[in-house]
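TASK: fixed-backbone design
INPUT:
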């Protein structure tokens, strides 16, 4: 089973994905947490380039193709073998991020970008997607409270991040096969959000408790 967590900065993706991983892995070694970009040696090397603030002037098209290169390597070398081995994969970010960040955020053309994404992923989509959504202001406040230095994409201005938030909402309506569960995290504590995730998973996959 391929479980995906998506959403804008500060929405709680990492927290919820890792919490689900800790919850699900009890008594089994067939649950794996992965992230994009990364999750494999070549992909992790590309990640360092993509997120390094030194490369703030990277062109949108170069950014897009670096993400697809990292994704293609990760899907072929890590994700597909895990799924073939019947692992439950809990993943932080996938190609929906590219749709939100590079297509909606950077303004790259939809059709050729979607074709490149299809090529990079081999058409592999999640069994269920948790789209955690928050306002730009709340997401920024959470990041500041965490004391984390922003990476190259996190450091972009408010206009860029608001385009991403709208992009997530727009593309979510166009991907029915992704089984997207949208959860607004602005006004709910972590436990409430996590319980909603568990309930949705139990409805989708009865073996998860």
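OUTPUT:
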């Amino acid at each position: 089973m391929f479980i995906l967590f998506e959403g804008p900065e500060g929405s709680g993706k990492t927290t919820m994905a890792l919490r689900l991983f800790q919850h699900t892995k009890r008594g089994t070694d067939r649950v794996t947490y992965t992230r994009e970009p990364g999750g494999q040696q070549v992909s992790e090397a590309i990640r360092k380039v993509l997120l390094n603030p030194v490369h703030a002037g990277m062109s949108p098209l170069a950014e897009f193709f670096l993400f697809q290169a990292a994704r293609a390597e990760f899907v072929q070398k890590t994700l597909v073998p895990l799924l073939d081995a019947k692992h439950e994969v809990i993943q932080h970010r996938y190609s929906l991020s590219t749709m939100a960040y590079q297509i909606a955020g950077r303004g790259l053309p939809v059709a050729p970008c979607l074709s490149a994404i299809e090529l990079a992923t081999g058409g592999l989509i999640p069994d269920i997607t948790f789209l955690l959504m928050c306002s730009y202001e709340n997401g920024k406040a959470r990041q500041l409270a965490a004391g984390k230095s922003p990476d190259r994409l996190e450091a972009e201005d408010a206009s860029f991040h608001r385009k991403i938030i709208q992009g997530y909402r727009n593309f979510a309506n166009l991907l029915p096969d992704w089984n997207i569960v949208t959860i607004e995290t602005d006004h709910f504590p972590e436990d409430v959000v996590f319980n909603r995730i568990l309930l949705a998973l139990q409805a989708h996959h009865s073996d998860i408790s």
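COMMENT: Strands lie at 2-6, 31-35, 88-92, 128-133, 180-184.
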